[in-house]
Each structure stands twice: as structure tokens, then as C-alpha cells.
Amino acid sequence: MHVLLTNDDGIDESGLRALYDALDALDGVDVTAVAPADDQSAVGRKLSTRVDVREHELGFAVEGTPADCVVVGVQSLLEEVDLVVSGCNRGANLGQYTLGRSGTVSAAVEAAFFEIPAIAVSMYVPTDEVSFRTYDPDPAVYGEAARATAYLVEETAADGVFGIADYLNVNAPTAGEESCEMVVTEPSTFYDMDAERDGDVVHLHDRIWERMNEQDVPDPEGTDRYAVLHGKVSVSPLTAPHTVTYHETLSGLAVEY
Questions:
Q1: CA of residue 159 relative to chain centroid, distance
Q2: How many angstroms separate the CA atoms of 1 and 81, rounded?
Q3: CA angle, 78 as apex, 19 and 114 as ends, to 5°?
Q4: What H or E segment, with its residue span, contains residue 105?
Q5: Which domains does the chain have, with CATH numbers?
Q6: What residues are designated binding site for a divalent metal cation?
Q7: Distance (Å, rounded) from C-alpha 237 to C-alpha 167?
Q8: Cis? peptide before 180, omega within 30° of 0
């Protein structure tokens, strides 16, 4: 199995290194990193028309976005890709509202349009314990995320998981003394964005992070955020194409046009 490994934090981030080492240790798995040269967090599926590429000890560094990396890796740099793994992101990607915003998840979505199975992996960082902007964890902190990723890479290809799901969105707690339970979840629908004006400046706040620190998010059991807040590894099986459904009222309007 040839795995294309990417992320949105940049190829030199410790989260990517943690996954690279975990996957490289698996029998029958070859890993090549094709990842952004620098931080591309929260760029979604932004795509370039030209990117510079340079060789890196783990594979290739791309002056572009996570979506760029998947396209360039699949179509130009690598002869064959069986699976795309994106991560491990420093910070969780939980809830429906993050799926289109996250560069980590967007790389998995890009792979799905190439009909290549993918796994997006993120690690929850409690922001009441560390300063997120300056937090630079050792690869060992990503141990639970790496263990879950290696397990899923080994097991899902043989078990037909990707016959139904296009990609998996995985969120893990930071590594502790004991291994975590893994649960299958759905993305939370709870949303709490705010914007405050201060003269000519408007500050945007994602209030969910503050509420997560206070264990105050009203997510029901079975959702990704509930699982991670309770110390479990969350795995959400998702599909990439937008769902199209029959809409009787809209169909009637079209006929009358």
C-alpha cells in the first residue's frame, strides 16, 4: 500500500512526523509525504494554478495548499496512491461547520474526488491548558492519534469500510498513560460563531472552544465533539459529494418557469 501523507500545518510539523513514523513502521506500507511547505491552516479546498515543489527528507514540500498537495501528488509526483492520510492536525476538527473550512479535512475530500480513500486526522488541544498559537508538542504527544491512524490504515482497507464511506474524519485526545476507546460518530451540528465590532475592526470568535474548555457544549452522545470531550477517539465515516435530493416545490417552480 502506498500512502500519500499530507497536512495543513506544514511538512515540518511534529504531527505529520508522528503519523509518518507510525505508518512507516507498518509492514507492507510505503509512505511519501507531499505536504505544504508552510502553514496552510483553515484554507479549505483553496486551489492554485501553479506551485513550486522541492524534495524533502520525507517526500516533497509544496508551496501550496493541502488540496494542491493531493492533486500534485496523485497526478504528477507519485506513480500510484492507494490511500491519502491528512494530519495529524494540531487542534481538533469537530462538527459539521469545520468540514469545509479545515485544510486537513479538505485534503481528504480532494482525494475522494479522485476516488482514493482518505483519512483526516486531528488532535484535540485543550486551550485552557496551553497557549494554542505557541504550542509546539513533541511527536509523542500525538501518540494516540498515531496509534488510531495506524490501526485504521491496517484494518479498513481489508474490511471494506471505504465501500460506503469516502473518507474518515478522525479526532483523538492527546496521548495519556492509557490507550483510549475508539467510537464511531457523526459530526456535531452545534454552532456558536460570534463577531464583535470595535471601530473599523470586527473580531470573529469561535465560542465553541471556550465552551469545550468549560465542558459546556450541548452535544449529544454519538457526536464527534461529545466523544473527544469524554476522552475517546472519534471516527466519523463521511462522503464527499454533496447530497442531491428530490425537491417537489423546486421542481414545480422549474416547470412553471
A1: 22
A2: 8
A3: 85
A4: helix 103-113
A5: 2-188+218-256 (3.40.1210.10)
A6: 8-9, 41, 89
A7: 6
A8: no
**SS3 assignment, position 21:** helix
Would residue 215 be called left, alpha or beta, if left means φ above 0 and alpha means ψ between -120 and 50 degrees?
left
SS (H, E, C) 156-207: HHHHCHHHCCCEEEEEECCCCCCCCCEEECECCCCCCEEEEEECCEEEEEEH
Task: Output the tens digit of pLDDT for each of the chain's 257 residues.
Answer: 999 999 999 999 999 999 999 999 999 999 999 999 999 999 999 999 999 999 999 999 999 999 999 999 999 999 999 999 999 999 999 999 999 999 999 999 999 999 999 999 999 998 777 777 778 889 999 999 999 999 999 998 777 899 889 999 999 999 887 889 999 999 999 999 999 999 999 999 999 988 998 888 899 999 999 999 999 999 999 999 777 788 899 899 899 99
93, 39, 78, 52: CA torsion to nearest 10: 150
Helix (H) or strand (E) holding 123: strand 118-123
Q: What angle do CA 57, 20, 68 make, to 5 degrees?
A: 75
Element (H, E) at 54: strand 53-56
Residue 26 CA to residue 19 CA, distance in Å, equals: 11
**What is the grid cell recorded at 150?**
495506524
The annotated binding site is made up of 8-9, 41, 89
With beta carbons less than 8 A apart as the criterion, state whether 99 and 169 touch: yes
Q: Please give the distance of CA 208 from its chain centroid, rounded to a whole number.
A: 18
